[in-house]
Design goal:
Elements (H helix, E strand, L loop, with lengths): L2 H60 L3 H15 L2 H38 L5 H26 L3 H26 L4 H20 L11 H40 L1 H35 L4 H37 L8 H27 L2 H54 L5 H23 L2 H27 L1 H15 L1
């Protein structure tokens, strides 16, 4: 097996593994939403959302982005196989996780009366926020442990922790909601968060770390790099959240809250579906890229492989989603949400551009160039917000679909120009052949379901899905010999039987 084949297989395996986890989490989420809606009613669902929103905001700010930025440091240290360096990075991360967690908890307790007043219009939920402040500490520590697993590439342990955590969270919360109703929300959040921490701690303890002495001054100095990159990422996250807030407020003021619901539902369907790819990128691709960030030739090759594999795996999924969009919306929501179909299908046409842009964008983070990453994200974010506001103003929800496509074409162009000039990363003609063909399949499916009627649209779109699947399998087989992977799976299944 060549090194290239091995790399493609690693990408494929990681996408399959965390794609499965993503699907499981989606199913758990659907069941949870149904139970919460039945057991707590609309008021309970609202309280749950209103409690989580300010806590997540505080966590994102006080966490300093450490949980994500540290993955780069852990991966880089793990790639050197220098046990002392690995131990320093991991011990630093654990201490900084405690610090950021305690900071989040103190801020939440200090602001508890104000949070209750701002969120609910009274002080009734002050003690709820006081109790839930503990979850910020637990989550910060848990995210730190997950970063260790991710950076040391213990992907199976991460997958196990994710699946077990989702299942336990469901089984713990439902009885509490059943017996205590709305009063069970705070205990359910606390116990679920504590369970997540225990799982991450259990699996991260499997990572053997050399015992070292590290003063708090050394810890502070060692963690500054993590914090610096993390702060840049926190700012980017805030800009994204703030832009989303402005857009939702604009839609609400111009079209009403129903339009906001339709927009979020449409984006939620496509986002959940394609989350399989982006989850694998964040979990496997980012630490792999970080580990080799000093070897520009390897970086160029891995970026190309990840972008191509993501597009190939995504294409059949997108063509299938175009066909099944009405059924998916009925299952996840109600027929009242069917007007969102056109918007959701339009966003699908922008997804291939988004996948390639993300693959290139991780280069900035892997290199630790936080200020450049912030610049790259800031300019397209402003352009995207303007396009979104204009798109909705002139064409409603469908206009947001058009702007999504335009935004990622612009984002792709800007990102490509910079990674090419700064890191010499570029794509060969063979990649563009794959990309254009995949985009053509998505476009053909979209045109089929939009313009054709009766059973003709299903014949055309199903044909597109089948051809897209065959194309993806043939190309992936050339890259990594899928037959060997399938034979291994079959052999293992026979052995288990």
């Amino acid at each position: 097996m060549t090194e290239t084949q091995s790399s493609y297989r690693q990408i494929f395996k990681a996408t399959s593994l965390f794609g499965g986890v993503q699907v499981f989490n989606i199913l758990i989420g659907i069941v949870r939403v149904k139970f919460v809606a039945v057991l707590l009613g609309t008021a309970g669902v609202g309280i749950l959302g209103l409690l989580n929103a300010p806590l997540n905001l505080i966590l994102s700010i006080t966490g300093l982005g450490i949980a994500f930025s540290a993955i780069r440091d852990v991966s880089e240290a793990h790639g050197t196989d220098d046990q002392k360096r690995i131990a320093i990075v991991i011990k630093t991360l654990r201490r900084w996780s405690w610090f950021t967690g305690l900071l989040g908890a103190v801020v939440t307790v200090s602001l508890a009366p104000l949070l209750s007043q701002w969120t609910f219009g009274n002080h009734k939920y002050t003690w709820a926020f006081v109790w839930l402040s503990v979850t910020l500490l637990l989550q910060a520590i848990s995210k730190g442990q997950s970063a260790i697993l991710q950076g040391t590439r213990r992907l199976k342990d991460m997958a196990k922790a994710g699946v077990i955590g989702s299942a336990l969270g469901l089984f713990i919360s439902i009885p509490l909601y059943y017996w205590y109703g709305v009063k069970g929300i705070v205990p359910a959040i606390l116990i679920t968060t504590a369970t997540g921490l225990l799982l991450s701690w259990h699996f991260s303890r499997r990572v053997v770390v050399e015992k070292i002495e590290l003063t708090f001054k050394e810890t502070f100095t060692s963690g500054l790099g993590m914090a610096k990159l993390g702060i840049f990422m926190t700012i980017v996250g805030f800009l994204t959240t703030f832009s989303a807030y402005i857009l939702n407020a604009f839609i609400s003021n111009r079209g009403g809250v129903d339009q906001v619901g339709l927009y979020n539902a449409g984006w939620g369907v496509v986002g959940q579906y394609t989350g399989i790819i982006f989850s694998a990128m964040a979990t496997d691709y980012y630490p792999r890229l970080s580990a080799i960030n000093n070897d520009i030739e390897k970086v160029k090759e891995l970026v190309r492989q990840q972008a191509e594999t993501a597009v190939l795996i995504m294409t059949p999924l997108l063509t299938l989603l175009v066909i099944t969009m009405p059924f998916v919306i009925r299952i996840l929501y109600t027929p009242a949400f069917l007007p969102v179909i056109m918007f959701a299908n339009l966003t699908i046409l922008g997804m291939p551009f988004m996948a390639v842009t993300w693959a290139m964008g991780y280069t900035f983070l892997a290199k630790g160039h936080g200020s450049l990453f912030l610049t790259i994200e800031f300019i397209p974010s402003i352009v995207a917000l303007i396009n979104n506001l204009a798109g909705y103003y002139f064409w409603g929800l469908n206009g947001l679909g058009y702007s999504f496509i335009l935004n990622y074409i612009i984002g792709y162009t800007i990102t490509y120009m910079i990674v090419k000039s700064r890191y010499k990363v570029s794509f060969p003609i063979s990649f563009y052949k794959v990309f254009i063909t995949s985009l053509a399949f998505c476009l053909f499916s979209f045109i089929s379901v939009t313009l054709l009627t009766s059973y003709y649209k299903y014949i055309a779109s199903i044909t597109s899905f089948c051809l897209a699947s065959i194309f993806a399998i043939v190309v992936l087989n050339k890259r990594m010999d899928i037959k060997i992977i399938i034979n291994k799976i079959v052999t293992k299944l026979k052995g288990d039987a």
